[in-house]
């Protein structure tokens, strides 16, 4: 099991230098993300340079991250565009040598992929998602790329059961699951007992796990239920369990800290390292 971070890297290929890798290694990271902002016009030479400069410094692109595209759109033209972009991202992911390509399920909410909508979990929405994923997965298979599909309570993949069912319906060996326990917490009952939720995630979806997004979650002092992300170790996520269960199913996979500004990443890394020690595990190089 390896550790990386989403953030702390430039979006411009020409700005990646040996110091980029050195800075990541100095904080204990062996993996990072790379944002694929322009897959259609991607310069393969530039991507290879990013891969090689980072690799020379002991860092791998752990996850390639595309821009927001909508696999569940009712607009057929928009869905075709989303599929096409992800197909191109598969090629870019191969060139980067990235461990996985991050895939969002999308949303019918026009304000963003991770926003709720009353029709997100309807059968027709899930059928569109499955059709789109099947097409992308075929290209991923041909490129030798692993897809890391993520879910969340606000998305079409709102439960561990739904994640499992969609992955099995797609039926591709290239389609895996990006574990993110925070995303599936629906209320205080689950927040105060994330151990049960995490076991359920791995019991149902663990065989497909290819990456972990690591963050923490706590409640806000308010008259209505409000929760917010926080630094790892300051919330209620049973992170030692997340790591132990991931080690069992994907011992060579990456655990990626996310959603924090650069200045808070060191504290999150310390929290994650403490969880790792509590779990009786060590990071691989």
Automatic annotation (TrEMBL):
**Name of this protein:** Xylose isomerase-like TIM barrel domain-containing protein
All copies of domain Xylose isomerase-like TIM barrel, residue ranges: 24-269
Show the taxonomic lineage: Bacteria, Bacillati, Chloroflexota, environmental samples
């Amino acid at each position: 099991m390896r550790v990386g971070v989403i953030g702390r890297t430039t979006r411009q290929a020409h700005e990646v230098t040996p110091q980029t890798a050195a800075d990541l290694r100095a904080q204990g990271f062996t993996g990072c993300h790379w944002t694929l902002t322009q897959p259609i016009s991607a310069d393969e030479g530039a991507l290879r340079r990013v891969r090689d400069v980072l690799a020379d410094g002991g860092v791998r692109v752990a996850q390639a991250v595309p821009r927001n595209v909508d696999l569940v759109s009712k607009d057929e033209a928009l869905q075709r565009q989303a599929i096409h972009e992800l197909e191109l991202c598969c090629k870019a992911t191969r060139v980067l040598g990235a461990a996985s390509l991050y895939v969002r399920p999308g949303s019918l909410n026009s304000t963003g992929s991770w926003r709720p909508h009353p029709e997100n979990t309807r059968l027709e929405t899930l059928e569109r998602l499955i059709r789109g994923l099947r097409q992308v997965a075929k290209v991923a298979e041909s490129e030798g790329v692993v897809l890391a599909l993520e879910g969340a309570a606000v998305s079409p993949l709102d439960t561990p059961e739904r994640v499992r069912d969609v992955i099995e319906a797609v039926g591709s060996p290239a389609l895996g699951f990006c574990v993110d326990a925070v995303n599936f917490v629906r209320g205080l009952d689950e927040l105060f007992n994330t151990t049960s939720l995490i076991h359920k995630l791995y019991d149902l979806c663990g065989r497909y796990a290819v990456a972990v997004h690591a963050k923490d979650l706590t409640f806000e002092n308010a008259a209505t239920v409000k929760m917010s992300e926080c630094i790892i170790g300051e919330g209620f996520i049973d992170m030692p369990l997340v790591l132990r269960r991931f080690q069992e199913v994907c011992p060579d996979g990456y655990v990626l800290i996310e959603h924090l500004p650069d200045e808070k990443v060191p504290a999150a890394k310390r929290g994650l390292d403490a969880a790792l020690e509590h779990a009786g595990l060590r990071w691989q190089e």
